[in-house]
């Protein structure tokens, strides 16, 4: 069990290779939704780690590991979030703010009402590994709802979102540091 949403199944993909200075263990790890072990829609590709002998432990993660993680969390609904009235009021997001950007909202709502944001991933996020970074492609939508005085909600508009980001990880002063770049 990783958390409430996902579990990991790991097993040896080949017999361990035991050499004088080291042991080589090839594990195949699959992440799946908690309580719902299903076959992955992805195929695992084998890969090799460059020979080095200056560290005690080497770990390598493949695209397959990240793809199954993304699939498991998407299936479990982890990428669907509702930002409620309390959070929006902290950032002072209301119909007046949207009305200054989108004239149709100003016509609809003369009185400033609080809003609620529903963020949803519409497809499984795609994670691709490169030499020095990895990219994450996310397709989703954001629905903006107005919270009326009687506590009911009414949809104002929906935005479709497609984002592509690159993430680079480096180690500085024995700390893992990341940099995020929004490509589009």
UniProtKB/TrEMBL annotation:
SUPFAM superfamilies from the UniProt entry: Bactericidal permeability-increasing protein, BPI
Assigned keywords, A-Z: Antibiotic, Antimicrobial, Disulfide bond, Glycoprotein, Immunity, Innate immunity, Secreted, Signal
Pfam families listed in its UniProt record: LBP_BPI_CETP_C
Compartments, as annotated in UniProt: Secreted
Annotated signal sequence range: none
Quaternary structure, from the entry: Monomer. Homodimer; disulfide-linked.
Domain remark in the UniProt entry: The N- and C-terminal barrels adopt an identical fold despite having only 13% of conserved residues. The N-terminal region may be exposed to the interior of the granule, whereas the C-terminal portion may be embedded in the membrane. During phagocytosis and degranulation, proteases may be released and activated and cleave BPI at the junction of the N- and C-terminal portions of the molecule, providing controlled release of the N-terminal antibacterial fragment when bacteria are ingested.
Protein's recorded name: Bactericidal permeability-increasing protein
Source species of the chain: Regulus satrapa
Classification lineage: Eukaryota, Metazoa, Chordata, Craniata, Vertebrata
């Amino acid at each position: 069990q990783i958390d409430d949403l996902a579990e990991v199944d790991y097993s040896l993909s080949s017999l361990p290779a035991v050499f004088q200075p080291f042991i080589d263990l090839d594990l195949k790890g699959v992440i799946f939704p908690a309580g719902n072990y299903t076959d992955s829609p992805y195929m695992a590709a084998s890969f090799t780690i460059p020979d080095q002998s200056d560290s005690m432990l080497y770990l390598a993660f493949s695209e397959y590991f990240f793809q199954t993680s993304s699939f498991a969390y998407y299936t479990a609904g982890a990428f669907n979030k509702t930002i409620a009235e309390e959070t929006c009021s902290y950032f002072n997001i209301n119909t007046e703010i949207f009305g200054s950007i989108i004239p149709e909202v100003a016509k609809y709502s003369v009185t400033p009402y609080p809003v609620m944001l529903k963020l949803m991933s519409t497809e499984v996020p795609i994670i691709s590994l490169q030499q020095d970074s990895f990219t994450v492609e996310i397709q989703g939508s954001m629905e903006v709802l107005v919270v009326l005085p009687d506590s009911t909600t009414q949809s104002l508009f929906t935005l479709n979102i497609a984002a592509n980001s690159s993430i680079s990880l480096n180690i500085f002063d024995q700390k893992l540091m990341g940099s995020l770049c929004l490509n589009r």
